[in-house]
Amino acid sequence: MAINPNQLAVTKIYPGNYTNVLRYWHDTKSVQYNNENGYPETLTNQPVGGPVGVVFRPGWIAQQAVGYVDLSYQPLGTNNQLEYYTTPYASGGASNKEFTNGTVIIPSPDYHKDVRADITTGITVPSGAYVYRVGLRVDGGDVVSSGVAGGSATPTLGLGPALGVGLSTTPTASGFYATIVGSNSRIENGSFNSTNAWSSSTMHRVTADSTYSLATVRNLGGVAASGLAQASGVYDPRAGAGKLAGKDKALAICEVCWLVPDQPPKRSDLALQPGGIVESSVYTSTTPA
Question: How many CA within 13 A on the CB side of residue 179?
Fold first, then answer.
């Protein structure tokens, strides 16, 4: 097919023209405003300061959430970003338990957290979204399953919406996981993987707000029970010998990407003349003849 020569004159928007990162961090507040009919309304639990999305194509907004789970130290009720926790994950026991599951922390864009705190309730994908990518990376150090009761020689970390029958790394409309599978009882630093769905039939169609979490997983096995279940845990073998600096901790970097339908255009999106009623006496008029 020949290229339309006029195509070369069309203005194109390249990714470098976007000045905001696709930040998921946000706060929630009640917002009072006057609606289109001039009546006051209050919207509760409204996102403020984010999430930041990009118009992927007209009518659709792409959003990305990136957070982390500390695989070196137990949170023990505190969720300050990369804090020096006092109790490491280990090979088992009442206090030195291994990591089995955790909530993703979304870091605040602020260096100091007293103004805008980290989001510690995980990655929540809104109802009506279409999840098309789940990504996972281990960064900062190896994690192992050695010495863990029932530990696997191929420890596996998984990021997804829920554990159970039917949810695996195969993209489906019901949801899917991204997993990292180790070997020799170890998941090496720098290991990563992602699961991607670029078809409306395999994107996760979110019908109710869904929280994506990290867990050690195993395959349920069998056709009737295909899916993922909770597995025995892993830990950072360095953490027990001393407190690791934030950059040296073993972190699971978690990513979830989705699309949400944009709102239809408003009156303000039209190029009306200042009067707002008569567009042009030459081209178009909304004034009765």
Answer: 25
Residue 123, both tokens? 């990655």
Give the confidence band of 93 by pLDDT, cuts at 50, 70, 90: low
Per cent of the chain over pLDDT 90 is: 39
Q: CA 122 to CA 19: how far, in whole Å?
A: 26
**What pTM did the predictor assign?**
0.81
Q: What angle do CA 95, 164, 24 make, to 5 degrees?
A: 75
pLDDT digits (tens, 9 = 90+) for 164-203: 888 899 999 999 999 999 999 999 999 999 999 988 899 9
The residues near 4 (Cβ < 8 Å, ≥ 6 apart) are: none
Report how far apart, in Å, the C-alpha atoms of 144 and of each of 125, 140, 157, 228 are.
30, 13, 11, 20
Buried b (16+ CB within 10 A) or exposed e, 185-222: bbbeeebebbbebeeeebbbbbeeebebbbbbbbbbee
3-state secondary structure of 258: strand
